Amino acid sequence: MARRLSKRDKWAENQELERVHEPDRDAIVSENATYMKGEWGTKAFDQDQPLTLELGCGQGLFAMDLARRFPDRNVLGVDVKSHRFYRGAKDSEVAGVTNVQFLRTRIQWLDRFFAPDEVSEIWLTFSDPQEGDKRGTKRLTSPYYQAIYQSVLRMGGRVHVKTDSQDLYERTLEHAAESGMKVTGQTANVHAERHERFDEEIAESLGFITAFEDRWIKEGRRIHYAQLEKVQDVSQEALTEALRMLQGPAERTKPRFPKGRGDKARVTWSPAGLD
Ligand SMILES: C[S@@+](CC[C@H](N)C(=O)[O-])C[C@H]1O[C@@H](n2cnc3c(N)ncnc32)[C@H](O)[C@@H]1O
């Protein structure tokens, strides 16, 4: 029987996987550092095609499902816990799915990784609802986060939010009004309504079940979905404020990633601008 891998084993194995990006955190949070910004299509992926992000991807199986279903897209799973996405990275390598890759970072720093208009769509799958987050610095659909998403999305690009939390669902819709994003679809019962409410591609994408979703469905919870569209550029003022709130001193001085994992000092990814 295959040995169960520890977190450390997965961090070590990630170092060998072509599809995994683990740029040094301290370098990224230093002033004006960037990584692959504007270059995902030309330097990281085999083909220059529209880029989909799954933020908080966990094991990365949804990202992999999307990549398999839509070979004409590049899919990047993003999570701060890279031992979790080891599974998606390894499985996709074994299966030869070449249009999915994984990036370890905190979502607060997305502007360091993506140029304006570089991203075609964003999926947020089963994010922590963060019900007590009054300042909007933790809930991943707060107006601050939506400002950052708008800054990297192309015009007409969409944010898809799939959640078991009614609170997160309702707040996301409220925050969209505040952020100037247009609500282009919603349902409080995805699996009962996805085919009648949405076009085939969205209905199919909503049918891919994530690891957390599987758990919530077994517990009998309903799955909600909100779809937001970028219809205007975010103002420089709103973006500056969002970055100030999300990348403040507390975020910059967070502990380094756990001891022993070793940030990848890879040259093969040509970390342009990461100095
Ligand atoms: C509840 S899990 C959901 C995982 C996966 N999407 C699923 O549905 O199975 C939330 C994930 O988001 C990641 N996460 C939470 N906040 C994050 C942040 N600020 N930056 C990057 N990842 C984050 C966590 O590490 C975790 O893997």
What gyration radius follows from the Cα positions, in whole Å?
A: 18 Å
- CATH fold assignment: Rossmann fold
User: How much beta, percentage-wise?
Assistant: 15-25%
Number of domains: 1
What is the spatial order of strands in the main beta sheet? 1-4-3-2-5-6-8-7
Structural write-up:
The protein has 275 residues and is of the alpha/beta class. It has 12 helices and 8 strands. The protein has a single domain, classed as 3-Layer(aba) Sandwich (Rossmann fold).
Brief summary:
The chain is of the alpha/beta class and 275 residues long. The chain contains twelve helices and eight strands. The termini are far apart.
Write the layout of secondary structure elements.
Elements: H1 7-14, E1 20-21, H2 25-29, H3 40-44, E2 51-55, H4 61-69, E3 74-79, H5 82-95, E4 100-104, E5 119-125, H6 143-152, E6 153-163, H7 166-179, E7 181-187, H8 190-197, H9 200-206, H10 211-218, E8 224-230, H11 236-246, H12 249-252
Parallel strand pairs: 1-4, 2-3, 2-5, 3-4, 5-6
Antiparallel strand pairs: 6-8, 7-8
What characteristics describe this protein?
275 residues; alpha/beta; Rossmann fold; 18% strand; binds S-adenosylmethionine
